[in-house]
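This section describes the prediction task in plain terms. A model, or a person checking by hand, is given the sequence of a single protein chain and must write out its three-dimensional structure as a string of tokens. No templates, partner chains or ligands are provided. The sample shown here is typical of the held-out split.
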Amino acid sequence: MMMTSSAAVVFAALAVAQASAPALAGDLSDGSAAAQPPPVVEPFDPFLVRLKAVSVKPDGTGKVFEPFPFSGDDVKVGSEFIPVVELSYFFTKNIAVQAVCCVSYAPINIPAIGGTIAHAWAAPETVFAQYHFTDFGAFEPYVGVGFDYAHFYGVKTTGFLQPYTLSVADSTGVAGQIGFDYMIDRHWGLTFDVERIQIEPHWKIPQIGGTGDAHIDPWVIGAGVAYRFGGPEGSSAVRAPD
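The expected answer:
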């Protein structure tokens, strides 16, 4: 009888310990979770503006058509050095769209006759779809493909063409780019890129019916500063969408 009572006490104690074990484990789990630091939140700024100094180096050659005595000769457009403003919007940390705006004033040359036949203002507006690589820390390379629309205005003829009016048609074409941003901090960075743009306007002189084309097709090489903004600051920063 004595042994039976002792056994009952032991079994009762074991049952109480088993019942309290989950609650104790829960208390320990809650305490350890509370002691862990909060997850790191990655700030995300969807807008990026770049201000660059750009060298525009036309690489193509057009032709002069009839009735000029120099028909068949090459037509080239001179190089320019211009400022450029670019604005990008990031849909995710990797995918962005970029708009490029610039204006240049370039000479139109016919090398065979050794002179400039005109000067023209050009406003090429380009939109790129970009992919940004984000696995290299502050160094963020990217590639882009896009579409260009070039408008020409303020054309002035020179030399033997000065008495005539030169009309240059607008041009559309494709574009490609490769470049990188190097972010110094969350907002400020340095930027560099190389672009190739298809610009091939047709031109004519209405008074004499003369026509020609100019395959400008420039390489555009630029460097400057970048500023990223648009995201919430401080503790309210949000993680970049994937």
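For orientation: Helices lie at 2-35.
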